[in-house]
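Human:
Care to share another protein and its fold?

Assistant:
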Amino acid sequence: MQWPSAQPPPPGTQPPAAYPYSAATAFTPVQVRQTFGQPYSAAPPASYPPPPAYGPLPTHPPATQLHTNPAAPLTAASPSTTQEPAKKKIDWPESVRNYVQRSFQTSNLDPSVTRAEMEAKLKETISYANDQGHMYSVNWEKMPLPQEMIKEERARARALQQASNFSALSISPTSSKKRKSTDFSEGAAPPWRNGQNRLEDRITFNADKRPAPVEEAQSKTQSKFQKQLEKRQKRFDGGYKSTYREPTPPPSDGPVVGTCETLEKRYLRLTAPPVPSVVRPERVLRQTLELLKRKWKKEQNYSYICDQFKSMRQDLTVQRIKNEFTVEVYEIHARIALEKGDLGEYNQCQTQLKALYKMGIKGKSIEFKAYRILYFIHTANRTALNDVLADLTAAEKEEEAIKHALDVRSALALGNYHRFFRLYNDTPNMGAYLMDMFVGRERLAALCNICKAYKPDVPLRFVTEELYFESDADAAQFILDYQGQDLLEDRDGTVVFLTGKAKELFEGPRKAAFSRVDIKGQI
């Protein structure tokens, strides 16, 4: 377009009063904005003459474009409108954007939740996180979607409504902790139906420790777990009674001195400091030991004897009694456990005996050191076995029981099964009970060697004598236990063992028998 002959005023200056509007002007002149803090005047200055009527003016762009298009003319504000302070700009992390996009994905939409409800919940959640400064600390990947929060609130509201209805219909009042319908004023709507009373406003929190939405979900789980713990505690207290307990007295500095005169007492694991009235002193424990010796010889009830010995050991421990009587109690319990094959209890006893012997307390140390060597041979614990051998003195190695245990170890290390079974036949003390626990695997190993060295067959009597079975029937049963029924043959009244056909029959069981042994209570 062509400007008229009169030149327009320079930018940023007021036009003179005589400056006329051009017929070609297609816009409404406004006062030039000098600063960013003041709004435009609603009316043109008095010096501006009214625009001439040259027909309809071009249509102005919509108000939404005035803030985005700097070239478009600005709309004048009303004189009565005061400018509102600028809102704080929210910093949108990428995780928040992804959270919003994930909320509106088609796969996550719920027909029961409207878009308006979702947008309101999104605005509430993100605004709260921004106000609390949790925009970057909240894990938005695990944040429940708005539709999930809304459904959870609805379910909670229905549950509370049902609980209040049930309380109103019940005949007799109960001591339920749930809210009743009488808790609300007549005609007043419940708080979950009031739009101004949000879910988080109905939960009491410390003002400085109000959790974010993610923390609210975690607190619900913790609250449920706490209720379960309280119910369980009430059951242990004998019903739903007061859970108050007297404070536990502080433990005394010195050992407990027992005053109980009962000879027999069941073993119970301690869950609190021991009470002197239920602990037997050493004088009573000596009488208990003599009673248990007589009962063991007469009744042979291992369950009862083991329980009584554990109770005696507990009373000795809490009173810190460590003398020759303590050693005697542990030694007798260890021998009885060996006789019944209870390696767990035996190992606990031998561990305590090792510490007591190290303190210089007298006892059957030679006997139990030999047992310890045989025990580590059974468990195939080479490290512990080497430690025991390193602690032996030259004089101890000459003792009969220890010398026998060392010979057993040497025979097995050399693969000399003939010597091993001769030693098994001549075991001092109660070492045979320990050797019984691993003689079966050694017989398998020896039988594999016999099958390789003697072919095509050997008399069954030879196997009985070499592997030290009590009879030929026991030797035959041992072979039959490993599906060797085809390896026994009767020839003119003599049963022979067909070693040439054995092949790899005993190799698999031998490898399985030599796998690592795991004993309960082993240290």
Remarks:
- The radius of gyration is 47 Å.
- Residues 167 and 175 are 10 Å apart (CA to CA).
